[in-house]
Amino acid sequence: MAHLEKLWYKSKLAHYMCHVECNLFSKIPLGGKMLKATRFLLIGVTAALIGAFVIPAFAQDVTPGQGGILIEGNFGGDVQTLNPFFISDTASSRVAGFIWPGLVAVDPDTATFRQNDPTALAESWTISDDGLVYTFTLKQNWTWSDGTPITARDIQYSWDALVSGALDETSRYVSLQEQIASVESPDDYTLVVTYNFADCTAISNAATIPVVPSHVFPADYAELTPDWEFNLAPTVTGGLMTFGALNPGEQVALVSSQSFGGAPEGVLLAGYIYKNVPDQRVLVEQFVAGGEGNPNVIDGPAVSARADLIADPNVQPYQFPGNAWDYLALNYADPANAQARFAEDDSEIDQGHHPLFGDLRVRKAISHAINVDEMIEAALFGFGDRMNAFSVQASWAYPQDLPMIEFNQEMASDMLTEAGFVDDDNDPATPRVAQGAMYAADGTPFVFTLLTNQGNARRETVATLIQAQLALVGVQVDVQAIEFNTVLEAMDNQNFDAVLLGWRNGYPDDPDQLNLFGGTADTIGGNNMVSYYNPRFDELSRAAAAVPGCATEDRIPLYAEIQTLLQDELPYIPLYTIQGFYGSNVGVSGFDPRPSNLFWNVDTWAVRAQ
Amino acid sequence: MNHMIKYIIRRLVQAIPTFIGITILSYLLMSLSPGGAIRLLTFGDTRLKPEEREAIEARLGFNDPIFVQYLRWFLGDHWMRWDANSDGVSDGSFLVPLDADGDGAPEPPGVGRGVILLDFGSSLTRGRRDALSVIAERIPATLELGVASLLVGLVVGLPIGILAAVWRGSFFDNFTRIFATFSTAIPIFWFGFMLILLFGVTIKGPDGQGLLPMGSRCPTSLTGGCAPLHERLEYLILPTLALAVGAVAGFSRYMRASMLDVINQDYMRTARSKGLNNRVVWFKHGARNALIPIATFLGPALTGLLSGAAITENVFSWPGLGRLAVESVTAKDYPIVMAVVIMTSIATILGFILSDILYALIDPRIRFS
């Protein structure tokens, strides 16, 4: 499932639970991508050489807890809460990932959940034949920071709290309860999760249940409130770090825990500081300047700054195909008569057709008329990759064999003419007009409004490029870069022509897109705002999500078929993924990130004074 | 003194309708703004069904008429849904349904006291903490920066204005005019960023690092806390410079104009004819009188101290009220936004009253009436 980029909270699981790695080099298509792959390779080799010969000599001399302070800049908002029940933002998720244990973790090499991961509480799990019952066996040597053993009761507590009805019902756990039927802990180190239906995201869902110190949390769930003082100053934790201090608006400091079960050799770092630096440019300057008090590790700097960072000898860069992607959404349905796809009695409602984009031929023409490579160069400074459909290259389900949509404006012009939009005056400055178009009255000019969120330089540039590129085939685009929530409101209400926005996938990647393009997601306020509907897509998606055994090799062909279908019917026009970037100061030893997790081996990191 | 007290009381009473008008206007504006708190409260859960979303909206009162929502916000909701027999279950309601979401169970009794009693509700994003306490923890930082920049603005700007007036037409006068024009014209975020590049990156200190910290209010540390101001003055220098440059320009121009008004007055000529030196004439006789109009700016300037400086605070990672306001607007954290708006409104009203009082106190020709 993809996630709306604005909904930063959806990345919680990625950072909170996963200690992930993915061998992405094998997924970079060769040919046109050879240069990029070579660049990645060179950077990787350089980093590996540094890591192999220089850094260990330093790290070996460091005793646990004496390895300096890791400082990461936070250009998101303040950390809002550290209570896993209430975490909803990226900043809180980032910090929480250091202080709370995770039930399961992701294999660094395959980017899928693996059993007996050293950083996960679960040693192993078994799945019942019907795929409904997952039995987790927990490690017995893990303790909370106060020495109390971490047991299945600590997860049982969370589940009981969630289903008690005493918690704030506005939390995301409302939907979790539809998937999980029960959670039981027959003994301290066995957890049994029973699902209402078999689904390949079962482990991800189980991992969402917080692991909290039940001996510290209130017995009366009604006292588990968002304003509990523990939430911003947890006294007992169970992760790699313990809570140190919070200066609102400035920083959160964590102190290394030498009792973390996932790091039996100890944690070299003395601590970690998540320092608020709300301006991205300032953050990059602070990182480059280095020195005491400035960030020594960086995650996802602006693409405009990356070339300089890569060239800086004091920076250890790590680039990878990203999991964030932008799309051009064209409304299928009549925006003047926005309705849900289905009525309450499940009968299908006539949503009408968008006068321009209701015709698939027009959508295809648009897809051929835009030059994505030009967008990547101009708006992403080269740090992007074209998408062939709506699966990211980093995903295990990426359809390798699906070709890119061809950029061919001549073909696009012909297709528009065939669809009944003609250039009646041979004046390139005026738009085409409808003459026998499928849904537009004759004489209707081909003019539409493209919404995007104001303040996002990348998207504003891309929107301008789309405007210029489509003008060449006689399509006039009115670009409106407006406040983000206004864009969301238009999407929720389905009363837009076109929207340029993005999604961010999680780790491990869940390729299911039923929530984006499925018929049941086509509601006012639902994610299928373009009103795409194909029962075959729904059927394939359900089948792929419930493949018995959930083996990726069995699911890949289904997702390839789904992406082929989507490329053919174009609910969105696919654009590009934004490459990911991690970097550290050369004084940071052990820096060896993976796409899904910058900190998967952070217990072996140490910071040397510059 | 009696006149002054009566005057203050009268002005405060007159401010009440203004305040209520501000609350209505700001609440309406907030209600009309796109996006919704529900998306925030439900963490944008893509799996949430429309009916579940509607139930949450009903339960939280987002479906009530706008005037009911305003009244709930302004006067609290303890009188809208109450628990007469103290069993924890609502048994009566006024203006709102007892069972708003239609699940057969009454909604919990209202506990909000309303803005009128400084209960702004809970932040939607900051761990649902009390909005006022979130604001309160940002005020020291805002005051530090605001007072520092105001002091720099006054201490540097006023003498510049005086000297520019007495040396009218000189190189100094022209230079300060150009300086003032530049200072007010350059974008503050750009100026701040240049200061960071210059003093944080380019110019190195003895330890080989940037001469001044590139942001933050306090040094980073694992133990948290913040050292006393005198031990971390270096953190205050760059943001103060960025914020004060406009104040210096403004005060110097106002002071110059005011000084030009008094410089040719009879009492100035008299002072000179008595053989007093220029410094005494300018600063004792001239500047004191020229300061009277400047006093009228102090009230709004004090308001500015409280409202924060969003851009400067953002560029320099300064954890003040301005940055909080911007972050809250972006995050659609309505309670915080509204709390900041109301607190700033109150400060503005009080600032103007203070300004009038100062004017009357400084200039004996003005009477409280």
Protein described:
The complex is a heterodimer of chains A (610) and B (369). Chain A has 610 residues and is α+β, with helices and mostly antiparallel strands. Chain A is 28% helix and 20% strand. Chain A is built from 16 helices and 22 strands. Chain A has helices spanning 12-17, 34-59, 90-99, 152-163, 173-179, 202-207, 280-289, 303-311, 360-369, 372-379, 409-418, 457-471, 484-493, 514-517, 535-545, 552-569, and strands spanning 2-4, 69-74, 105-106, 113-114, 122-127, 133-138, 180-187, 190-195, 241-247, 251-256, 271-276, 297-299, 315-330, 384-386, 421-422, 433-434, 447-453, 476-482, 498-505, 572-585, 588-589, 606-607. In chain A, the strands form six sheets. In chain A, strands 1, 12, 13, 14, 17, 18, 19 and 20 form an eight-stranded mixed β-sheet that branches. A four-stranded mixed β-sheet of chain A has the order 2-11-10-9, with helices on one face. In chain A, strands 5-6-8-7 form a four-stranded antiparallel β-sheet. In chain A, helix 9 (360-369) packs antiparallel against helix 11, helix 10 packs antiparallel against helix 12 and helix 15 (535-545) packs antiparallel against helix 16 (552-569). Chain A is globular and about 80 Å long. The two termini of chain A are 43 Å apart. Chain B is mainly α and 369 residues long. Chain B has 14 helices and two strands. Chain B has a two-stranded antiparallel sheet. In chain B, helix 6 packs parallel to helix 9 (233-263). The mean pLDDT of chain B is 86. Classes of the chains: A alpha+beta (610), B mainly alpha (369). The interface between A and B is large, with 74 and 68 residues.
